[in-house]
């Protein structure tokens, strides 16, 4: 084998090695990008469920404030918080890929949606109690 052939063979092997390493690097980078995309989706799902829980807690707090003050503004604020929670449930549902998790999110949505009727029942009960004690009934 001549020197010229050895040099050509050496450069060819280096080019093949560089191409293989570039392919492995590209494949790994693409996998990392997919991992970051999945992390982003899960982080947004976590934020949506956290915001939903916060909105529901705010709603419960506003209902309690209404019970103590009889101020209808608290009922309006509580219902607005429930609407915010319903919006967050829809966001969480759109970010869910797993079938079992989707079912859980649907159940949370049903619970959030039914909370408005509970707010109305509390409001009516408090108003009826006030009317009873003030002699308006």
Number of strands: 0
Low-pLDDT ranges = none
The proportion of residues in beta strands is: under 5%
Rg: 30 Å
Order of helices and strands: HHH
Give the proportion of residues in helices: over 70%
Continuous helix count: 3
Sheet bearing the most strands, described? none
Oligomer: single chain
The average pLDDT is 87
Overall shape: rod-shaped
Distance between the termini: 113 Å
Structural classification? mainly alpha
Structure in words:
- With 137 residues, this protein is mainly alpha-helical.
- The protein has helices spanning 3-69, 72-94, 99-134.
- The protein is rod-shaped and about 115 Å long.
Task: Provide keyphrases for this structure.
mainly alpha; 137 residues; 3 helices
Please specify the SSE layout and strand pairing.
Blueprint: H1 3-69, H2 72-94, H3 99-134
What's this model, at a glance?
By secondary structure, the protein is mostly helical.
């Amino acid at each position: 084998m001549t020197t010229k052939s050895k040099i050509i063979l050496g450069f060819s092997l280096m080019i093949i090695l560089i191409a293989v390493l570039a392919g492995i690097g590209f494949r790994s980078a693409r996998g990392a990008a997919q991992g970051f995309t999945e992390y982003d989706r899960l982080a947004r799902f976590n934020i949506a469920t956290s915001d939903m829980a916060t909105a529901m807690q705010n709603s419960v707090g506003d209902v309690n404030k209404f019970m103590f003050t009889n101020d209808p503004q608290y009922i309006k604020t509580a219902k607005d918080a429930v609407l915010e929670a319903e919006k967050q449930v829809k966001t969480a549902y759109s970010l869910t890929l797993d079938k079992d998790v989707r079912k859980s999110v649907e159940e949370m949505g049903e619970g959030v949606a039914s909370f408005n009727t509970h707010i109305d029942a509390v409001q009516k009960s408090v108003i009826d109690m006030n009317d009873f004690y003030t002699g308006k009934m």
